[in-house]
Amino acid sequence: MLLEQGAAYVGLDVQTDTYYETAYGKLKHRQGTIENVLIHYNRTISGEAKQTEVLLYIQNPGEATLDQVCGNQKVLAQVKKLRKIFFLDNVKFHIDHLEKEGHFIEIEAIDLDGSIGLDTLNQQCRYYKELLQIDEEDLVHHAYVDF
Question: In terms of residue numbers, what domain contains 113?
């Protein structure tokens, strides 16, 4: 369905997300075959959507950076998944498989510089939710780490 809409398939990423203790938000080190990032973020649930404020985003962090940011932090959990990644303009789609929890899809409308606006981002997410026939009762309101 996404390819029919003109989405670009980035590939299949084998990911391990390690979550660290932090006083505010979530601190996560993602190690994948495509995406390797260190990210500190805070997520707010607003109705059916979640707004994420990214506080720190470092692609391909080196050992020194990981040690400096995460070295003294307690590991809270690890989440392993297979993730197919697609892009359609500023919208990123994740089709995830977690071994014990099953399959999930995430629609992530991205506004890197603030030029798109929250209303348009919400509208994009609603449009693709309907297009992909995702019902309200199928929505998951917590992160994989919280399963």
Answer: 3-146
